[in-house]
Predict the 3D structure of the following.
Amino acid sequence: MNDLTPTREQRTAALEGMGCKRKRVEDIRFTQGKGNYVDDVKLPGMLHGDFVRSPHPHARIKKIDDSAALKVPGVLAVITAETLKTVNLAWMPTLAGDVQMVLADGKVLFQNQEVAFVVATDRYAADDGINAVVVEYEPLPPLVDPFKSMDKDAPVLREDLVGKMSGAHGPRKHDNHIFEWTVGDKELTDAAFNKAEVKIKEMISYHRTHPSPLETCQCVCSFDKIKGELTIYGTFQAPHVIRTVVALIAKLPEHKIHVIAPDIGGGFGNKVGAYPGYICAAVATIVTGKPVKWVEDRIENLTATSFARDYHMTTEIAATKDGKVTGLRVHVLADHGAFDACADPSKWPAGFFNIVTGSYDFPTAHLAVDGVYTNKAPGGVAYRCSFRVTEAAYCIERAMDILAQKLNMDPAELRLKNFIKPEQFPYHSALGWEYDSGDYHTAMRKMMQTVDYAGLRKEQQEKRAAFARGETREIMGLGISFFTEIVGAGPSKNCDILGIAMFDSCEIRMHPTGAGIARMGTKSQGQGHETTWAQIIATEIGIPADNIMVEEGNTDTAPYGLGTYGSRSTPVAGAAIAMAARKIKAKAQMIAAYKLEVHEDDLEFDIDGFRVKGLPEKFMSMKDICWAAYNSVPPGMEPGLEAVSYYDPPNMTYPFGAYLCVMDIDVDTGVYKVRRFYALDDCGTRINPMIIEGQVHGGLTEAFAIAMGQEIRYDEVGNVVTGSFMDFFMPTAVETPHWETDFTVTPSPHHPIGAKGVGESPNVGGVPAFSNAVNDAFSFLGSTHIQMPHDFWRNWKAAKDLGAVA
Ligand code: CDP
């Protein structure tokens, strides 16, 4: 080795592999305005479609008159449910086993529901056309409150289901009932409650909100009549699933459908499902023979495409006097709106809500979820969440604080007392999951030490005394959240979408000069996959990440995958990437052995190539192996160096974290200040620490928004009153607190690189931390639980109701 020979550290650094804070390669185009989004797609002769929407939440449609609209210059067609019936597309299946109107068929079931689709030469003409369509409605009584949906005299919403007392998930109790889902041991749980020394019971609501990505949902559909091929450019988090759905419902051969998801400006679960806009644009292109673009505006996005949450969770914990939990009982009333369009794996009507036992060793638990219809937009998507895990984490983390308050015990101490212990992993929860790995005590203690938890509690006592003496009008809250996530849907044994197992895939092709291309079934919406996926390959095969191009989102080129949502990309596709890379490496080893004239077993992998054991100078770099793969492979071996992996994970991964929020609230104005927010995440092996930090910052900002004000709210007659960014809280840099991030590393034992997902964690853990801080502050005034969102007005109202404000 001479002075110019790179050291092992230099060779490792040159790869920019796992663990490296590699800069995001996609930002080169994003920061220069060179991204290519759906609205950038402009095809020759392209038409524009837009919707006539219902002003009523519940009404019968008496008549649709399009005669004036068809006279508007530029308007070419007005599509209604009657038109769609001619091609059997008036209704479409949902991912949750329900059916949904594409365009209002006989009646409307929520405000802003799609009634007719106007196709015109440009967007302005389409808009003029919309205003000229005359719809005659006969208003019907609206059903807004989910708690009244199963009343005897409740208006029946879904006339198509009248008399069908069984749905996709079993028996229905009422015409407005969708399903009942129960898990756990009821008898054992009831027995635990019967002999409990201490019990708490609280109705904890997680209000309706919306993922509201910067870029709304949109598509361009283009049908080639000669070839009989349909190309769809769209904002799709799961392009292959969209292709299959289109093939099934439009009865087109799947190989004649090309789905392309170009750059996506945020998804957060909003872009998983299929929406009427996609169907109408596809029908319109087939009818007109011209490409048709549909782009949602902000109000349409907030009021008509999928909402999130709307879970009302009656939660009970049984415990001993010294704070050991002995049982958990939860009943959820789930408001699904007009159609059950939840984007959950098929068998899970309430997603993975049965992770509700959280990080605690509950000997027994029982859960029942009732899904109901109301006159609200359909959905129930996993907004930066792995299928109702956010709701579950909020439920248990709020309930643990309520129990601590009842026991007069510190909430951190209560958690430490009940955590699943490191030696209990793999841990079988009372509601049926097998947690892969965890070290909760270490994470919690690190958090408490870093923030000086004891010091903060002391300061809170002093502030409370000062408040009592009338020296301050501020109350201080400490909000702890210790969450366990379940991400990586998922194992084919329990997860599928429309019958397709939720595996994921990767194909890697190495070129002769030591560069390559990797394609996956996932689709980044801002998570930085182009950067991190190349890092996994770099470490696995010893080729610099810069030499690997990552391509996602084209169903013609990528292997079939189930897409990106619920932090499944790293647990599932990340594993497929490592497995495909290992296949490449195995073939590379055979080629190197042939070239170095040794047996394969005599070689060892050394950072960026293979070395003969005991003979360090006999080395062949991976770059040289790539060249050899195309000119001198061993006799009988096929040339080339490529591999595909379809990975069906054996289990989910269970990331976790310890968060703390320090907040001061002025009781006279309700104005809060987030003084400090600390977030410790454990997502196993960390691929790119900088990207993880970015994911945590983004997720915490969404959690802050949800907990402190963001809400899709309906008035008592079914009008959406938070349908634009004037009313729907979207924090800017001005309101967003400063985030402190930290980590521990507990690898997943079953994942090839030990990684767990992280993208959802800050939303899952953040919301309870904020809400617990508010509730901790108000507990001093005698309150047990204040419902989210905790905006200024509600804080002031709480202070007034508790007698702190005259
Ligand atoms: O499915 P989604 O991409 O939304 O979530 P994820 O799997 O949690 O990954 C989000 C981003 O964080 C990706 O770019 C991952 O590569 C990165 N990540 C990481 O660097 N290390 C981990 N252990 C987990 C995720």
Notes: The longest strand covers residues 307-319. The mean pLDDT is 97. The radius of gyration is 28 Å. The pocket of cytidine-5'-diphosphate is lined by residues 527-529, 532, 564, 567-570, 683-688, 691-692, 695, 755-759 (CB under 6 Å).
